[in-house]
Design a protein that fits this description.
Radius of gyration: 21 Å
Bound molecules: adenosine monophosphate
Order of helices and strands: EHEEHEHHHEHEEHEEEEEHEEHHEHHEEH
Structural class: alpha+beta
Largest sheet: 9 strands, antiparallel
């Protein structure tokens, strides 16, 4: 693999906050940044050298974008594989389009995990109301997830055995789904892995995640779940990165049940649960993505201090007073960093920013980050 040094141009497919944080790190290291997506005035576009707005299937525009890049990566995995294939005619695309094909489809993802020897929650492929009825009979209470286009809990329904399968199926709009047994998990964790073209992998410490309304709410690192569980989580994540032949960064989300680790989801890019790495690690997940796709050295990332990250969703803006969130209340705290994504249209559950705190231990970091977030609403 060619090594791409500073001065060369990184292309990003997708233009949200993950691309924005990658672009910051790329610029810090002296790379040029171009971004492509169908949206205008985006978080990534605002900090890139060139923002190309075009549909994913606008071949001419995609090719013009790709011909101006030295390597292309993603910040969003639902880019059509045809678009990634077209880009690959002009420059390397990492992770390869074959990884998108798996990560875009929950059924393929689970089948790949099972093939690679990773445990997953029992699941069934569902393509009709009758399939769903049989799946509920087999697996009991569970979660019905659309196979494609699902993220942040979109396209998911919690199902009880007493529910009417045909009604639940109707609500999906009749699209292909996966039905998963409901997992009585003790914790949710994730591991961010970077893998080079030569097959070297490095991993961040295991992260413990708390979701609210199926959207990530708080992450703490290290997870503090003991060496046995954490080793199993790392092994699962590295196994997925190697088995899928990822070049770049991949985040694997898992459920922990007792000492067992079940693979839930793979994101072939940096992940919300690794945002703390910008402030509390020597090399952030975004710099690591850059290093992996440019063929630069991967170093085993070191945690500077135990830390916690809390997401700032649109509700914070909608629930704070007429002058908006009290940024001063967060900015006046030590060992606390505020990140805002430059989005101007707050909506419920929309990720608008995050706060990271580092402390002597994760319990203290978590306490402080929750306190910091609450302080944005001002005094009651
Ligand atoms: P996902 O989009 O698959 O990451 O799901 C979002 C969140 O919904 C997860 O992080 C869990 O909190 C919850 N969830 C998803 N699938 C299951 C399951 N099979 N059992 C229990 N909770 C689940």
């Amino acid at each position: 693999m060619n090594v791409l040094f500073p001065g060369q141009v990184i292309g990003i497919l997708g233009s949200g906050q993950l691309g924005r944080m990658l672009a910051y790190e790329a610029r810090r290291l002296g790379y040029g940044v171009r971004v492509y997506s169908p949206e205008r005035n985006t978080p990534t576009g605002a900090v890139s050298d060139v923002e190309t707005v075009g549909d994913w299937d606008d071949r001419e525009r995609v090719e013009a974008f790709a011909s101006g890049c030295d390597v292309i990566t993603y910040e969003f995995e639902n880019v059509p594989t045809e678009t990634a294939d077209l880009c690959a005619k002009h420059c390397p695309v990492h992770p390869g389009p074959h990884v998108l094909q798996v990560a875009q489809d929950r059924l393929r993802e689970k089948q790949a995990a099972a093939r690679l020897g990773c445990s997953v929650a029992d699941f069934r492929s569902v393509e009709s109301s009758a399939d769903l009825e049989a799946a509920i009979r087999d697996l009991g209470a569970g979660v019905l997830k659309t196979a494609r286009s699902g993220y942040d809990g979109k396209g998911q329904q919690s199902v009880e055995p007493s529910d009417d399968p045909s009604r639940v199926w109707q609500r999906t709009g009749g699209v292909r789904c996966v039905y998963e047994r409901r997992v009585p998990f003790d914790a949710e964790v994730s591991v961010v892995v970077a893998r080079s073209a030569l097959g070297r992998t490095v991993t961040y410490p295991v992260i413990r995640n708390v979701h609210r309304n199926r959207v990530l709410d708080v992450s703490v690192c290290p997870a503090g779940l003991g060496p046995k569980v954490e080793e199993a989580a790392r092994r699962t994540a590295v196994g997925m990165a190697e088995g899928l032949d990822v070049v770049g960064v991949v985040c694997v989300e898992m459920f922990v049940v007792g000492e067992e680790v079940l693979m839930n989801e793979v994101a072939p890019r940096p992940h919300n649960s690794g945002h703390w790495s910008l402030d509390a690690a020597d090399v952030s997940q975004f710099e690591m993505q850059l290093r992996a796709v440019c063929g630069l050295p991967l170093v085993e990332p070191q945690l500077r201090a135990p830390c916690a990250m809390a997401n700032l969703l649109g509700e914070i803006w909608l629930e704070s007073g007429p002058n908006g969130p009290r940024w001063d209340a967060v900015l006046s705290r030590p060992r606390t960093r505020l990140h805002l994504y430059g989005k101007t249209d707050p909506r419920p559950l929309r990720k608008m920013g995050h706060v990271t705190v580092w402390a002597e231990d994760t319990a203290e970091a978590e306490r402080q980050v929750l306190d910091a977030r609450t302080s944005l609403l001002g005094s009651p």
